[in-house]
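Before any further analysis, we paired sequence with structure tokens, yielding the entry below:
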Amino acid sequence: MLFTFLKYLQPSHYFGLKRKDGTYIFPKVENLPQEILQQLEKDNGFKSDLAKEYDLSWQALNKGYIVSGDNYTHFKKLPLVDEYRFIHKYFHPVWCLYVLVLRLFTFKNPLKEIPAYLKGRKLKRSTYLQRPIEHKEFKNYKSKLVEEKPLISVIIPTLNRYPYLKDVLKDLELQDYTNFEVIVVDQSEPYQEDFYKGWNLDLKAIQQTEKALWLARNRAIQLAKGDYILLYDDDSRVDADWITQHIKTLDYFKADISSGVSISTEGGEVPAHYSFFHISSQLDTGNVLLKKEVFGKIGLFDRQFEKQRMGDGEYGLRAYLEGFLNVSNPYAKRLHLKVGSGGLREMGSWDAFRTEKWFAPRPIPSVLYLFRKYHGNKRARLALLKTVPPSIIPYKFKRNKPMLLIGVFLSVFLLPVILIQVCKSWKLSSQKLKEGAKIERL
């Protein structure tokens, strides 16, 4: 990884992996345009020149540098003091202490670790994301792709959410871009055929008796007539220019995927990077536009994630490894209602790490399947160590940092139960790995 300590703090991050063309996502600083370099903040506090260079590359990527070019193919080892300086600069002090403790528990030399940690601790945490790279031309950009009006296929799986789906379809009726079809795969019981009559939309409703989210999406993609697939959820609200902003973003950046941001009324704080364009490190199937050729190249969704979690995360990672450009789009936003009924809640898994029963597997086995398949067992264990303790606290407290800290302490007392949960998940993920991916081709 760019900085070795990222393996502790981001053990399952897309950007820690090398793509199929042999490159990482991080741009070589020597090739950055001068106008981009002027928007970065050189840090002369690093001991090595190489660390200064890597730090600028980190800034460029995370602040919104999108033009693809000559990227790193490998990274060299950095001085220990530079590793600690980097994490103190960009991560919360609690996580910096976490790295120190973890390294001490794995028998790293305390006479080297502690002084390096303490030296980095003097550094004030960076606010670099408050000054993102600007794409000033975007606002007035006249998109030829929008003018060409390609057919967009909007795909919505639904399960027992007719009142919310009604608002979803009303928002689609109000779109300023009109050349789109809507494919709803309805798994509701009872199925309401009359619900789909009378809409001012090119609307096709497909009844699916099996309650299976990824089957629904795969099936709709196979039936889609458009050259672009817009994946959407049944409990969301969007503005009238939602589709236009997705298409415009693909055109402006010559991208393959436009990942719209999702603003939720529950859960964690809205990330700072949701406010500006950047290369996305995730794919949210509740709000994303993809060229249909992406599915032709890497296949459909892996049904190993059926009735579980992170099927969209795995797909985004697959697209990243193949080299497709995925841009996080702040202008194509949705309000995700996360309603209390229907959807995944009725399929047995709402949160990837939180369980409803004492001895249910934690995390959901598909999560470990994803971690282990792409990042290996060692990184998967590091991911468990970072994510499982905070998951003791209910989802609604994700915004509450003191409560998450309490969850870490509670996990010590609940360690026997947690170990049983994790072992169950590990065993079930091993079965998935043995079975292999269940990916159909388009």
Q: What stands out?
A: The two ends are 33 Å apart (CA to CA). The mean pLDDT is 92. The chain has three domains: 6-130, 144-344, 351-435.
